[in-house]
Amino acid sequence: MTNSLYTIEMGDANGAPILLLHGFGGFADNWANLQQRLATDKSVLAFDLPGHGQSLSYPDAGEPKIAARAIIAEMEKRNIAKAHIVGFSMGGAIASLIGLFAPERVASLTLLAPGGFGPEINHKMLQAYARADNEKAIRQILPQFFGFSAKISETRIKAELAARQQPGITQSLCKIADLLFDGSKQGVIPIAPLLEIDVPIKVLWGTQDNILPTRQAHKLPGLIATHVFSDTGHMLIEEQPDAVYRLVKQNTAYC
């Protein structure tokens, strides 16, 4: 076991760095294109979260709160006093929890279809995704995460399949999936305390999200900037790369 998270680091600049937190079943390289673009003028770190990728052996990997504390510990080890935190799906819930656990360390939050913003979640699909360990299963489940008209490249499918060949990864994802849900519901993050952090918060969502319903983005408090994209599914990083880049840049520019 290791108490450190696998990290891809790019860029070397002054100011608060950007931390990228992937979604359930993902890995640091999911951010590769965005990370390269952001790294031209900031330090950008993408992590394999506990129980995922090369952080598979992180102790007690499971609930998002463990991952949130793991990221805070990484910030302490790296002497990162404050960071812009970008989280996708489960990573969005983790980013929000970092804001609640260590608000003094957060410079901004950019949350892409974040978990925890309402009780509804497609738990059956995520459980099926956790079990998908062969090419047939990957080809069946992966398109359901994208918008109706999105095209998924063979390279993307092969990358997903390769990630599932790591010994122990399926068991880890199934364990995490069991901890994410209370029956068919997910835990809800309190929004009001997030507003007390007094940092910019952006939430991005797709109208065709089949994992977390877009209505969880409706009627968020006015202090949260909400951006909803039509003809877009859950995979905002891949389906709206230019918009995600632009909005992250806006949210991370001031510090």
Task: Please describe the structure with a list of short key phrases separated by commas or semicolons.
255 residues, alpha/beta, Rossmann fold, 7-stranded mixed beta sheet, two-stranded antiparallel ribbon, 10 helices
Structure description:
Helices cover 36% and strands 16% of the residues. It has a seven-stranded mixed beta sheet with strand order 1-3-2-4-5-8-9, with helices on both faces. By secondary structure, the chain is an alpha/beta fold. α1 (32-38) packs across α10, α2 (64-77) crosses α3 and α4 packs antiparallel against α7. The longest helix has 14 residues, at 64-77. It has helices at residues 32-38, 64-77, 90-101, 123-131, 135-141, 154-163, 169-180, 192-195, 236-239, 241-252, and strands at 7-10, 18-21, 44-47, 83-88, 106-112, 181-182, 185-186, 201-206, 224-229. It has a single domain (7-252), classed as 3-Layer(aba) Sandwich (Rossmann fold), CATH 3.40.50.1820. It contains ten helices and nine strands.
Widest β-sheet, arrangement of strands: 1-3-2-4-5-8-9
Distance between the termini: 35 Å
Mean pLDDT level = 95
Number of strands: 9
SSE pattern: EEHEHEHEHHHHEEHEEHH
- The figure for the number of domains is 1
The proportion of residues in beta strands is 15-25%
Figure out the total of helices. 10
Mass-distribution shape: globular
The gyration radius over C-alpha positions equals 17 Å
Brief rundown of the structure:
The protein is of the alpha/beta class. It has ten helices and nine strands.
